[in-house]
Structures are given as C-alpha cells and as structure tokens.
C-alpha cells in the first residue's frame, strides 16, 4: 500500500482508507465526503507545474484537484494499470 500522493501519473488504484489524525479531522472528513472511501477506484490524472501542487485525481466520473498533503492522507492499493 502507498499514499495517493506517491503514485505516478496515469496510475489506477483503489482507496484503502483515509488517515485520520484526530476525532474531528476536517481534512479527512472532507476527503471522505468527496468519495475517497474504501474500495473506490481512483486515478492520478495530472500534476501541477514541475510535479508540484495540485494533483488532479479522478474518482468515479469526478475530477478533484488536491494538495499533495491532502493526497498523502489517502492510502491506496495500486492495481498496476497505467493510462
């Protein structure tokens, strides 16, 4: 398993879980509300300039721009398919 922020562009993965740092962790709650839940497919579509923020990810049919620190909170299992 690895963090969403570590995946190369085009990599498909499945969300394992979102890391919660506290009981009232607003970032992890936001990620969960956006659909980053266990078993959901996700793909890294693009990175910002020079591989920096933001990271464009596709989950379901929706695209999200996440800060690298937010993407690092999502633990995924790579499925090995690059597109």
Notable traits:
alpha+beta; single chain; six-stranded antiparallel beta sheet; globular; 6 strands; 83 residues
Layout of secondary structure:
Layout: E1 2-3, E2 11-18, H1 26-34, E3 41-47, E4 55-59, E5 62-66, H2 68-71, E6 74-82
Antiparallel strand pairs: 1-6, 2-3, 2-6, 3-4, 4-5
If you had to describe this structure to a student in words, what would you say it looks like?
There is one protein chain. This protein has 83 residues and is α+β, with helices and mostly antiparallel strands. Helices cover 16% and strands 43% of the residues. The protein has two helices and six strands, in the order ββαβββαβ. The protein has a six-stranded antiparallel beta sheet with strand order 1-6-2-3-4-5. A hairpin with a 7-residue loop joins strand 3 (41-47) and strand 4 (55-59).
From the structure provided, what is the oligomeric state, counting identical versus distinct chains?
Answer: single chain
Number of helices: 2
Mean pLDDT: 91
Please report the total strand number as a whole number.
Answer: 6
What is the first-to-last residue Cα distance? 20 Å
- Low confidence ranges: none
Shape: globular
Question: In percent, how helical is the residue content?
Answer: 10-25%
Order of helices and strands: EEHEEEHE
**Proportion in β-strands:** 35-45%
Biggest sheet layout: 6 strands, antiparallel
Rg on CA atoms, Å: 12 Å
Question: What is the structural class?
Answer: alpha+beta
Strand order of the largest sheet: 1-6-2-3-4-5
